[in-house]
Design brief:
By secondary structure, the chain is mainly α. About 50% of the residues lie in helices and about 0% in strands. The chain has five helices and no strands. Helix 2 crosses helix 3. The radius of gyration is 12 Å and the shape is globular. The two termini are about 20 Å apart.
Length: about 80
């Protein structure tokens, strides 16, 4: 089974760099791992407050716009 890809390219890189998994983010947000996975793959909306909690907890040295910049071709309406 194919693993869904996080649509926020810079976040994916920073998570790998720091060894942070989706489960870690889910715990921080007090959400189910699958729910957070859907948010990071853009299958469900990521709320602004959730984005700031993620940034403040795991990536305080990263600008929010850098962290949640989408990879080319991954915007709304992309296949």
């Amino acid at each position: 089974m194919k693993t869904p890809t996080i649509k926020y390219e810079n976040m994916r890189v920073e998570m790998a760099r720091k060894g942070i998994g989706v489960q870690d983010i889910a715990k921080c947000l007090d959400k189910n791992r699958d729910t957070v996975g859907r948010k990071l793959t853009r299958k469900s909306p990521l709320q602004l407050d959730e984005a700031f909690i993620i940034r403040d907890t795991f990536f305080p040295d990263c600008d929010i716009s850098y962290l949640f910049k989408e990879a080319m071709g991954n915007g709304p309406g992309a296949a």
